Amino acid sequence: MKRLAFLFLFLAIVLTASAERVKVRLFSNNNIEALYVSFDLGLYDLYSGDSLLLEASLGEGMTVELIPSTAGVKVSVNSYEYGTYKQVILRATDTACIMCLNPKGVKQRTYEGNLVVSAFDARNLRIINDVDFETYLAGVVQSEIYGQQSDIFRIQATISRTWALRNMGKHRADGFNFCDYVHCQAYQNRCIRPDIMLGTMQSSGETIVDADGKLIDTPFHSNSGGETANSEDVWRSALPYLRSVQDTFSFRMRQSNWTKVIPKDKWLNYFAKTHKLNIQDAEVRNTLLTFEQPHRKAKILGVPLTRVRTDFKLKSTFFSVTTDAKSGDVVLNGHGYGHGVGLSQEGTIRMVSLGIAYDSIIRHYYTGASVHKDENVSERYVEHFVTEISKIIEEDKANPGKVKSKKDDWLGKLFRVRDRMDREEEFDATKQEMESDWKIEW
């Protein structure tokens, strides 16, 4: 318990540079006809707009059922119906609160922060997580990349933080900042892994900037296939920091190579009907059947490869074409996964495993860019926090399979401590040993 209090103060001060909340639309790619909310930790108030319906009584053992209707959201608590309201808010009463969301027909997720629910129509709910920015960021890192080494997560946190700060207004007209799908950044759960928390905290206050000190666009993808793409070959703008670079680090990884077989007539007719190419012309036909990319290209006979990728649902635009001698089918031999611009996640994983410094990896993928450290973030507190969380990780390794209760879920508490800053403005080692100073109630 004393160590947790020790960690809390470190984290509170570390996060001052980004101490703000964001609104994230959850299940943005699904129609949600019913949502069941239960509670893993802490107590919640139930509001309709600004009107309090239930005060601090929603916790373990309680279930809130939310159903859309033409009049709004129908609310029931443990099967007792409270009424129908235009907007329903589940507001956490403390920083240590975790809720479990069970939408009808969709896999369960857990989140922190508040929940704001309204109805699009009679068959679809709009669900928004009002959450601390760094809590959101840790969930993004967990959702976006795999691996074991903390520098992998530090890099992902840095590029995800940069993207988020640059795109805060992306969905402003819709009443939220981000969605939880790849249209923004994936945010499929609260972060529960200590190694991801560690990497995210090591990135505290770090963003990626250009030569003028401005935040850059930080696109990333699963695997470059050995060479990244220029931004203008995928999108409209040619950006100086999104240049094609050789990337041998992406070889021999999960998404390095792929193959797709397409009937020859379907392949040729696609270019004839959709793009008006004369497939009877021998030169055109030969190019379509023997297309090669020793290095990335943007087009095939004037047709954008991004369009071909979309229409045939290919993993990337980085492919060559051959014809199977027996079946006559067209065979696409491809490399990589994703749009190919910016950072390759699997290339990053390989580079980290080889001991390459995290800032060097970022500079490799974002030409001429550099990592900027917010001067308001204290290195001393980051170092203290990293040391303490590293100890806990080692303890977990030494005690594999040890079951912790929900109340001991320190990962669920680490990013929910900003209210402590009002009480402790400076580090005081003496006070860290006095649990009463923190007034933490379980």
**Total strand count, please?**
22
Low-pLDDT residue intervals, each spanning 5 or more residues: 1-17, 415-442
Count the DSSP helices: 11
Strand arrangement, major sheet: 4-3-8-11-12-1-13
Explain this structure.
- The chain has 442 residues and is of the alpha+beta class.
- Among the domains are: 25-132, no CATH class; 257-335, no CATH class.
- It has helices spanning 2-14, 133-144, 150-166, 194-202, 264-275, 282-289, 305-312, 345-353, 358-365, 379-398, 429-432, and strands spanning 21-26, 35-41, 44-48, 51-58, 63-69, 72-77, 80-85, 87-92, 98-103, 109-111, 114-121, 124-132, 178-179, 206-209, 220-221, 257-262, 299-300, 303-304, 319-323, 330-335, 343-344, 370-373.
- A hairpin with a 2-residue loop joins β11 (114-121) and β12.
- α1 (2-14) packs across α10 and α4 (194-202) packs antiparallel against α10 (379-398).
In short:
The protein is of the alpha+beta class. Helix content is 27%, strand content 25%. Among the domains are: 25-132, no CATH class; 257-335, no CATH class.
